[in-house]
Amino acid sequence: MGRTDEAARHIAASPAEVYAALLGREALEAWLPPAGMRGRIERWNPRPGGGFRMVLTYLDATGAPGKSGDATDVVDVGFAALVPSELVVQRAVFESGDPAFAGTMTMSWRLSAADGGTDVTVVAEDVPPGIDQADHEEGITSSLANLAEWVEARG
């Protein structure tokens, strides 16, 4: 059993609006990459058993070696569970020749209606040991901030 990382944020939008952003291709490309990265989805199949392939590129490659290549992280994500307005469970596998990034990381995005919006909790289980915990939690927090900005701007 690997490490577990998590982060949470309150978003001033309904669970349905947040859920839609978790399953929208354009939305994911915009908000999922953490600060300092951009993302591009190459394959898209938003259903249980489906998933997507995302290429994440560091905006400044200096001191940011990618997991998959120079300044890039490539991740194949499968949708393990989709419960409308409540839960998205993803299984993520990084393309990497480095065994420190091997394995399947499970990311659970839980949505709970609260105080005129939605509490979003992200739990990452079996995080590969090559991913620094502090950096990973910072990245999840950054993605949550991007998600909030994306959804709240459209509400």
UniProtKB/TrEMBL annotation:
Top-level taxon of the source organism: Bacteria
Ranges of residues in domain Activator of Hsp90 ATPase homologue 1/2-like C-terminal: 13-151
Coiled-coil ranges (or none): none
SUPFAM superfamilies per UniProt: Bet v1-like (SSF55961)
CDD domains: SRPBCC_CalC_Aha1-like_2
Recorded family membership: Belongs to the AHA1 family.
Protein name: Uncharacterized protein YndB with AHSA1/START domain
Source species of the chain: Phytomonospora endophytica
